Amino acid sequence: MADLTFNCPLCGQNLTTDEGLSGSEIECPSCTKPIKIPSAGDENVQKVETEPTAPPVATEPEAKKLAVPVHEGGEVLLKKESSKKEEEITGDGKICIKTIKRGDCIELGLDKFDESVNKFLEKFSREQILSLHSLNYSHFDPTTQKYLPDYAAMIVYER
Questions:
Q1: Largest CA distance in the chain
Q2: Fewer C-beta neighbours within 10 Å, C or N terminus of the chain?
Q3: Using CB atoms within 10 A of its CB, is residue 153 exposed (0-12), middle (13-18) or buried (19+)?
Q4: Same domain for 94 and 154?
């Protein structure tokens, strides 16, 4: 089926209609006056072939062959870092320092400083621990508006 392209004889509006409407009367959308649709052979009419809108229907649908590629996992490009750096003990010989403050080890009013230090030291052999130092320091307490004394342990170790 083809489309017909023509101009309205009254207002000159360019119109396109289906060839099946040739000879029928319609209202021009621009000037709202009734006009007769010309046939394909008239002058100032262009015939444009159009492709059918619906594809032809096959009797049987084609069987689709599905193939899922299987491959080995590639090299991991991004590695998630551990949230605790001290758990990453690789033995690369690098010298590191860990400071454990007593004020950071108080949970629900209980002093767990010794447990925290012991838990950290258990991760290393005796040869990896180079030195253990006690530290005294003061920190500002906003509730009392005073500097309060506290202590910590500084551990020098080899990974």
A1: 107
A2: N
A3: buried
A4: yes
What does the pLDDT profile of the chain (159 residues) look like in tens digits?
Answer: 577 788 888 888 888 888 778 888 888 888 888 888 887 777 767 776 666 566 666 666 677 766 666 667 667 676 666 555 545 555 677 899 999 999 888 888 889 999 999 999 999 888 899 999 999 999 888 889 999 999 999 999 998
The answer to whether residue 66 is domain-embedded is: no
What backbone phi and psi angles, to 5 degrees, belong to 28? Answer: -65, 130
Residue with tokens 């870092």: 81
Q: What are phi and psi of 7, to 5 degrees?
A: -110, 145
CA 91 to chain CA centroid, Å, is 37
Q: Where in the sequence is the domain holding 27, given as residue range(s)?
A: 2-49
| Tokens read off for 151 | 């202590």
Q: φ, ψ for residue 5 (rounded to 5)?
A: -115, 125
Domains in the chain: how many in total? 2
pTM over 0.90: no
